[in-house]
Amino acid sequence: MNDARRLFEVPGPGAYLLAHAVGCLPTAARGAVDAALFGPWAAEGSDGWPVWLDAIDRFRAAVASLLGTRAELVCPRPGVSAALFSLLSGLPRKVGKDVLLASRYAFPSIGYAMGQCERLGYRLKLIDGDPAAPSTWNDAIDDRVAAVVAMHVHSNSGLVSPIAEISARARAAGAISIIDVAQSVGIMPVDVERWDVDALVGSCVKWLCGGPGAGFLWVSAELVGECAPIDIGWFSHAEPFAFDIDDFHYAPDARRFWGGTPSIAPYVVANAAIDTISTIGLPKIFAHNRQLTDIFAKAAGVDLDMRMRGGTLCLKADHVEALATALIEAGARFDRREDVIRLSFHIWNEPVEAARLGDIARGFEIRLA
């Protein structure tokens, strides 16, 4: 057993291959919740708020470190959809720009949130074509586009979007670029400065192993002060403890997107998870993922080109039902999206597991989705 595996509570008895869905619980999380949530609650009651809000500040700082940015530009949100709608609802409107653009292969919840913005006067446009090809985006981003929402890694194929190229094309057309990193943060490098994007949404539930409920929104320093989100609450206020119903003014930083009374537990869990992931190191996790993917491919007798893919193996097969049955009988924990089998190797997985699964896949004519 590798040393890093001991840092997680890994479901068994078979190989757990669902980091792309819900990462394993870090062993540090239970104690962290007791110390940062239950302890102050039991001892201080209402006076526990300073400790709880400190946990939120820690979360903002931890996410900022992952993204290569500043904490004041990060806002906690319960999930990606909430973060995206809050941002879209508050974007400055420009005459003649009413199109919200995304790939048809984006995670459906992204489309749902964008679609509701039609009630605000926008039009949703979903584009076909390979989302990993710059030409797909270049051809679709025109002067009518107000905002482009792109998945860094696509959940049903693992394809990586050309983020820097999308951002550059959007900027040239006077559009806002927004990136969803839910399927990449924690396994692949995310660098908002290098990408030169305007905003980013993400979640800790997958590769970061932070559990559900700890999402986040990052907005660039140039954009944040121009936004006036609709979905607000007292923590969106520049002075949340002023309690003056006749006087609302937005927080000067990304907290303007925050909303009402925040949940605390999800961010305490996420803090423990990000600490754990950071201690292991993202380069080590990514290298381990690729090592096990290579072992799997060699055992399966196939060549899997992962150069433009994220951490998840999204596989098709000539006999997908039979392959799925064989994997289940071997105790593997994975999932399916129609004819695509999805499995992810994280730091807790062992080379012997990858080899065994590859042996099972041999003969099924597997290929990347």
Q: Judging from the principal axes of the Cα atoms, what is the shape?
A: globular
Number-wise, the strands total 13
Distance between the termini: 31 Å
Strand order of the largest sheet: 3-9-8-7-6-4-5
What are the SSEs and their pairings?
Elements: E1 8-9, E2 25-26, H1 29-44, H2 49-67, E3 74-77, H3 80-90, E4 99-103, H4 108-116, E5 123-127, H5 134-140, E6 145-151, H6 163-172, E7 176-180, H7 192-195, E8 199-203, E9 215-219, H8 221-224, H9 265-280, H10 282-300, E10 312-316, H11 320-329, E11 335-337, E12 340-344, H12 351-361, E13 367-368
Parallel strand pairs: 4-5, 4-6, 6-7, 7-8
Antiparallel strand pairs: 1-2, 3-9, 8-9, 10-12, 10-13, 11-12
Q: In a nutshell, what does this entry contain?
A:
The chain is of the alpha/beta class.
Describe, in plain words, how this protein is organized in 3D.
α2 packs parallel to α9 (265-280) and α10 (282-300) packs parallel to α12 (351-361). The radius of gyration is 21 Å and the shape is globular. The strands form three sheets. Strands 3-9-8-7-6-4-5 form a seven-stranded mixed sheet, sandwiched between helices. It folds into two domains: 3-26 and 281-368, Aspartate Aminotransferase, domain 1 (Alpha-Beta Complex); 29-277, Type I PLP-dependent aspartate aminotransferase-like (Major domain) (Aspartate Aminotransferase, domain 2), CATH 3.40.640.10. The chain is of the alpha/beta class. The model has no long low-confidence stretch (mean pLDDT 96). β11 and β12 (340-344) form a beta hairpin. 37% of the residues lie in helices and 15% in strands.
